[in-house]
Amino acid sequence: MTRKSVVTLMVGFLAGLLCLLAWQGPAGAQRQGPRPPFANAVEQRAETIRLLREIRDLLREQNALLKSGKLHVVAESKR
């Protein structure tokens, strides 16, 4: 290889490296900040309460169907 081709390859490599670093950017990691090791307890509690209320409503609906007698259950055996 000639000296000119080596210099051209080095310049191309450095330009590619600079483009990659500019694309990644150090600001992306700084904006996110550190993540806590555990979930937020307040959000977790609110989600649990929401799910429990949803389950409660579904159970009330199911009990109303069972009490009304409008529910017909058919059991089949699979072989």
User: Total helix count?
Assistant: 3
Rg (CA only): 32 Å
What shape does the CA trace take?
Answer: elongated
- The oligomeric status of these chains comes to single chain
Helicity range: over 70%
E-strand count: 0
Tell me, rounded to a whole number, the average pLDDT.
Answer: 82
Q: What is the structural class? A: mainly alpha
Ends apart, CA distance between termini:
76 Å
Low-confidence blocks of residues: none
Taken as a percent bin, the fraction of beta residues is under 5%
What about the largest sheet?
A: none
- What is the N-to-C order of secondary-structure elements (H for helix, E for strand)? HHH
List keywords for this structure.
79 residues; mainly alpha; 3 helices; 71% helix; elongated
List the helices and strands and how they pair.
Layout: H1 3-24, H2 27-32, H3 41-68
Tell me about this structure.
The structure is a single chain. The chain is mainly alpha-helical. It has a domain at 3-25 and 39-68. Helices cover 71% and strands 0% of the residues. The protein has helices spanning 3-24, 27-32, 41-68. The chain is elongated and about 90 Å long. It starts with a helix and ends in an 11-residue tail after the last helix.
Compose a concise summary of this entry.
With 79 residues, the protein is mostly helical. The chain is built from 3 helices and no strands.
